[in-house]
Amino acid sequence: MKASIFALALAGVASAHSTVYSISVNGKSQGLGNVQGGYIDSPPNNDPIKDVTSKAMECNVANIKASKSVAVNGGDKIAVEWHHNNADASDDIIDPSHKGPITVYMSKAGSSMSWTKIAEDGYDGKSWAVEKLIKGSYTGKPGQHEFTLPNVAPGEYIIRPEIIALHEGDRIGGAQFYQECIHIKVGGSGTTALPAGVAIPGYLSAQDPGVHFNLYGSYSSYPMPGPKLWNGAGAAAPAKPAPAAPTTTKAAAPAPTKVVAPTTTKAATPAKTTLATIAKPAPTAGGAGAQKYGQCGGNGFTGPKTCASGCKCVKQNDWYSQCLLQGVEVSGEVTVGMLMTLITSSNIGTHLRSPGLQDRHELHKQWEEQLTAIVEELHVHDIVWGDVHLMNVVVDEAMKAWAIEFVDGEKRETIEGDWQGITRLFQEWLPATMRRRQCQ
């Protein structure tokens, strides 16, 4: 492929990912926890983690650190509230295609955590946990997943809820993990010690049957990934009323989380952008600035405000700026349909015409193979995406018409009827493969 094809359009709509906004204790909301001064270690956006070996698997990408703990007691009913864009009643929680299990892990707070699984729900033969979450089956409120806190001894703890979205789990590395760490302070008279747990990352692998799982195949059960569920080692104490708002107890900080490259928070109406390639800056000697993906600014930040050679300090929000590769600039206005400039330079048309194409799933696999080749070619040419938010890719009508041209009459109905599925491929798979290259 020639460099001239790399000026493509990227505008659009946000993918329906999800993140934890708050918790309720015995039915009482504890207020937003994913804010500065809150009780949740919150990432900069709602994007998933896909590399199960990443340190970000523990508490997600570092951004806002919790500064409070929520006061609870053993036996309390804890409802974790997930949302897509906001905590409004109209929020769609998470895309219905993101079927999968929900689990909750717990650890003593401190510099080194050991995670014990205290709650799980997978597939019951009819519904997935994520489907129940969307419907509000756990508490009557959509987005809430509820579990009972074990009757553990008093102290500072962290609970870690997790959703595994399996809509791309048919290929190794395709499952999407959504997780955050919520700080709680357990009171009461419990005496049970939390048993030794597992390390995260390390609690599962990309090859585990509950992670590498074909959601589109035939199945009647689902193997829950990770360690076995702890039974709580005894009866829980009676539930006690929770305070209307979180306490101001200082939360014990978890182990430092390695920062991976986050993307910018999605706006309600994203601005159109153009990707323009520029020459990589020549390496310079030394430099005491922050390293790639390191923090370089934000309210209250006292560390280095410059970046290592080849990186630039990019503001993510008022509280966090990060060192990212200085390899692209974004300007102008374009349309997403120009994605076909990339794809028409490959032989994807031949794949779409192939007689073996039977259904949407196979179509996605064929597109994925071609997009993989495109991504590899981009990396060879040192082309990176920088500030362009690939989660906002949308396939416009021009792109749709172009793809249908390659499909015979027999298959045309399938493609048109499931165009949302093809759009989702661009929204979720492609951005997950586009990694910012390391600072030089």
Automatic annotation (TrEMBL):
<protein>
    <recommendedName>
        <fullName>AA9 family lytic polysaccharide monooxygenase</fullName>
        <ecNumber>1.14.99.56</ecNumber>
    </recommendedName>
</protein>
<dbReference type="Pfam" id="PF03443">
    <property type="entry name" value="AA9"/>
</dbReference>
<comment type="similarity">
    <text>Belongs to the polysaccharide monooxygenase AA9 family.</text>
</comment>
<keyword id="KW-1015">Disulfide bond</keyword>
<dbReference type="GO" id="GO:0005576">
    <property type="term" value="C:extracellular region"/>
</dbReference>
<keyword id="KW-0964">Secreted</keyword>
<dbReference type="Pfam" id="PF00734">
    <property type="entry name" value="CBM_1"/>
</dbReference>
<feature type="signal peptide">
    <location>
        <begin position="1"/>
        <end position="16"/>
    </location>
</feature>
<dbReference type="InterPro" id="IPR049892">
    <property type="entry name" value="AA9"/>
</dbReference>
<comment type="function">
    <text>Lytic polysaccharide monooxygenase (LMPO) that depolymerizes crystalline and amorphous polysaccharides via the oxidation of scissile alpha- or beta-(1-4)-glycosidic bonds, yielding C1 and/or C4 oxidation products. Catalysis by LPMOs requires the reduction of the active-site copper from Cu(II) to Cu(I) by a reducing agent and H(2)O(2) or O(2) as a cosubstrate.</text>
</comment>
<dbReference type="InterPro" id="IPR035971">
    <property type="entry name" value="CBD_sf"/>
</dbReference>
<dbReference type="GO" id="GO:0030248">
    <property type="term" value="F:cellulose binding"/>
</dbReference>
<dbReference type="GO" id="GO:0030245">
    <property type="term" value="P:cellulose catabolic process"/>
</dbReference>
<keyword id="KW-0479">Metal-binding</keyword>
<keyword id="KW-0186">Copper</keyword>
<keyword id="KW-0624">Polysaccharide degradation</keyword>
<dbReference type="InterPro" id="IPR005103">
    <property type="entry name" value="AA9_LPMO"/>
</dbReference>
<dbReference type="GO" id="GO:0008810">
    <property type="term" value="F:cellulase activity"/>
</dbReference>
<keyword id="KW-0560">Oxidoreductase</keyword>
<keyword id="KW-0732">Signal</keyword>
<keyword id="KW-0503">Monooxygenase</keyword>
<dbReference type="GO" id="GO:0004497">
    <property type="term" value="F:monooxygenase activity"/>
</dbReference>
<dbReference type="InterPro" id="IPR000254">
    <property type="entry name" value="CBD"/>
</dbReference>
<keyword id="KW-0119">Carbohydrate metabolism</keyword>
<dbReference type="GO" id="GO:0046872">
    <property type="term" value="F:metal ion binding"/>
</dbReference>
<feature type="domain" description="CBM1">
    <location>
        <begin position="288"/>
        <end position="324"/>
    </location>
</feature>
<keyword id="KW-0136">Cellulose degradation</keyword>
